[in-house]
Design brief:
The chain is an alpha+beta fold. 19% of the residues lie in helices and 28% in strands. The protein folds into 2 domains: 160 residues, no CATH class; 109 residues, Sandwich (Immunoglobulin-like), CATH 2.60.40.10.
Length: 296
Amino acid sequence: MITTLRALTGGLLLLAVPVAAAGPREPVAIIYQISGGAQRTASGHSTQPLRLYDRLPAGVTLEVPSGSRVTLAFVGGKRYEISGPARAKLGPRDLAARSGAVKTLASVPSFQLEPIAASDHPGPAAGAIIIRAEGITGLYPCRGTAALAEEAVLLFKPVPGAMEYRIEVQDSQGQTVFQTDAGSPPVKVPAEVLQSGHRYWWTVRTLDRPGPVARGEAELVTLSASAAQKRERAREVLAAEGDDSLPLLAEIDRGLGLWLEARDELRTALDQEPGDPELRSALAAIQARLEAGDGR
C-alpha cells in the first residue's frame, strides 16, 4: 500500500529524477490525504482506486465522486484539494485540466537534499560502509537515515543485564565530539555539538554488564543547513493547515531520512484518524525500520 519515497524536491519528494527531466511514466505528484472513494485512470490502463501515498505520473486523470475529497501535491510544490464531484488531469508540473471544486493550497517551498561536499556524496540514500560490533543492535540514526543537527536523538536496543551504557560520537577525523553515560535510550545530543551537513560515527557499549562488553556502532549523517531550513519552511506552511497535512510532512521527513520525526508525525495523524488503515500501515513500516536500525 505504501510506496517508499526517496528524497525531496519542490517541498515534496525527489521522485527518481528532477521534474525538468521527467518522462511520461515518472511520478509528478503524491496523494497525501483522501476521504471517501476516488479513482485514477491513465492512458492505456484500467481504472484503479486511489490510495494514500500513491505517486502519480503526468497524464493520470482523477475522478472524485460526490462526498469524497483528495489532497495532492506536485513535486514542484503546488498543492490542491479536490472535493467531489470533480475531475482533474495531471500535467508534468501542474493540473492540466480540472472541473468541479478544486481548491489551490499554499505551495510548499522547493526542497532538495544536498550532498555534504562536492567531493563527497553521503546522505540518506548513500551506501556507506558501516562498522558493526556484536551485542547492541537497533541503532538509530544509522546508514540510510539522517538527523537534524540541533535535534539529534540516539536510539538503541537495551541489552539484558546492562544497567548503564557509554555513548560516544566521533567526527570524520576520529575526534570525540560528544560522550555521555546513560541508563537507557533515547539519548539527546546537545544542540551545539553537531554541525549541519556532516558525517559522524557513534558507538554505544555496556559499562557494568556481567561478562563481555556489548557494543554497537553506526553512521550519523546530519542534514545540510539549507535542507534543514527548507524543511522547516515546509513544516511551517503545512502546520498552518493543522493535522490534516501531517501525512505529507511525514513523507517529506521519511524521504529525507528523518524516520523518527516521520514516526511522530504519523502517530499524531493517526490519533486524529484512529481507524485509517493506510496511516496505520505507514506508521508500522516506519516503526519496523526504526526497530531494525543498523542500516538494515
